[in-house]
Write a structure and sequence with these properties.
Length: 448
């Protein structure tokens, strides 16, 4: 099989070979090419030692990316190419990186240190695919399998546990029995992984095509770093609106929404407070009064633990808090929501509300119709470029001051009064009409 390699990568291979070194492309770029997916990074492995790599490319920009582990980045024709010397990894002292590496002249020994068979292939334009661990077979069979002993691979680098789940989710693959068992047995080692790395793997997992199945099978793995997930599993809701326990409902809502990180993570967390708020009435019907607020507090703790940036954190917390917003088919109500949340956030809330209903009772999916109508009405309103914020109001503070109103808090009060009038369709968003309306209704402002 021929793999089409970019010219700048071919140039790197040829330059190394011209100096007497072996060179192959390696890893994920081969996996993705064989799967007919877009390749984002082209990595090269070589028999050349790091100092030899630097000498080969002495006339070009090189970066000592991880030279102690054999990696040098070369800037070739404006592109970054990571070049790593064939190596054997020593003891992993922190569950993430080897304490030392030993360089080797054997490509097979280098491939043997890699995580999964589908990532342990090399390729050369003249020699074809080098595949000592049957990665191509596993790609064809859609299998995630560790190279060598699975326990050893996960003990060396616990992040591989989440990488295995991520590949299963994004590629729609399944794990072979040995890999799955080792993953579950070694999962506690995830406590040693930096929160930032856990966060990035979690987000990629959640956006995977096969995310739902991975969550159903391997929820205990995620619970090592997010233990708040466990009470949801098997927690029956005892309400006609729900056909599933809280965890299955959650998984189905994730599956029902677009694969965007903020939306998927919101669905993971939106009902996480339900077990803490459960009550039953005299008829045995379950209720979760206040679960939105409780879920919001728990979500905040989890997002801080995983070190999300402030903007993402605030967005998700808001979406969780208002996830069960009840839509009204009223232009005035919609404009008030647009003022409160802003356009993007309100449209996301509608998406979340639809996903929430989609994961409840299949016999009650007709309730989606109301949200769909609200969504259509919102888009129609937005197409008319309505005024639902002060920045779009036809009157500003300078206009009011020129009419003799004193600077200070009263200016903001008047502008909000006029904005309310526009949103409630009492007055058009036109300067003269607004000022006339103001003159006629000054007494209402004074009372407020």
């Amino acid at each position: 099989m021929n793999i089409i390699i970019p010219d700048y990568v071919l140039a790197v291979l040829e330059q190394l070979e011209q100096h007497g070194h072996e060179a192959y492309i390696v890893g994920g770029c081969i996996r993705d090419t064989l799967l007919e997916k877009e390749v984002h990074d082209w990595d090269v492995t070589t028999s050349a030692r790091p100092d030899q790599v630097q000498n080969v490319f002495k006339n070009e920009v090189t970066i000592e990316t991880g030279i102690q582990h054999g990696t040098v980045t070369v800037i070739k024709e404006g592109h970054s190419v990571e070049i790593t010397t064939y190596r054997i990894d020593g003891t992993y002292f922190d569950g993430r990186r080897p304490e030392h590496v030993t360089f080797t002249s054997s490509l097979t020994e280098d491939l043997a240190r890699r995580d999964f068979t589908i990532n342990a292939m090399a390729y050369h334009p003249l020699k074809g695919v080098i595949d000592p661990f049957k990665g191509k077979h596993d790609l064809e069979q859609k299998i995630i399998r560790c190279v060598g002993n699975a326990h050893s691979r996960f003990a060396e680098d616990a992040l591989r546990i989440l990488r295995a789940l991520r590949f299963a989710a994004t590629l729609n693959f399944h794990m072979n029995a040995e890999t799955a068992n080792a993953l579950l047995e070694e999962k506690e080692k995830l406590r040693n992984i930096a929160a930032e790395r856990v966060r990035e793997e979690l987000l990629r997992l959640l956006c995977g095509e096969n995310c739902a199945e991975v969550l159903r099978i391997y929820y205990t793995v995620l619970a090592v770093r997010i233990p708040e997930l466990l009470p949801m599993v098997g927690f029956q809701q005892h309400t006609p609106y729900h056909a599933y326990d809280v965890w299955e409902h959650t998984v189905r809502t994730i599956e029902a929404i677009k694969p965007e990180p903020v939306l998927r993570l919101t669905m993971l967390l939106h009902d996480i407070g339900k077990p803490n708020t459960f009550t039953q009435d005299d008829q045995g019907i379950g209720h979760f009064y206040g679960h939105g607020s409780v879920s919001t507090e728990i979500a905040k703790q989890i997002l801080e633990r995983l070190k999300f940036d402030c903007s993402t954190k605030e967005t998700i917390i808001t979406l969780v808090k208002y996830h069960d917003i009840r839509c009204e088919l009223s232009p005035i109500w919609i404009k008030k929501q647009l003022r409160k949340f802003g356009t993007d956030l309100f449209l996301q809330l509608l998406e979340i509300h639809k996903a929430d209903i989609a994961g409840q009772n299949p016999n009650l999916l007709y309730r989606l119709e109301n949200i769909t109508k609200c969504e259509a009405m919102t888009k129609e309103i937005l197409s008319e470029k309505p005024c639902f914020s002060l920045k779009n109001l036809a009157v500003n503070g300078s206009d009011l001051i020129s009419l003799g109103f004193p600077q200070g808090k009263i200016i903001g009060t008047i502008l909000q009064f006029l904005l309310d009038a526009v949103i409630e369709e009492t007055c058009k968003n036109e300067k003269n009409e607004l000022l006339e309306y103001l003159q006629q209704n000054k007494h209402l402002i004074n009372k407020s």
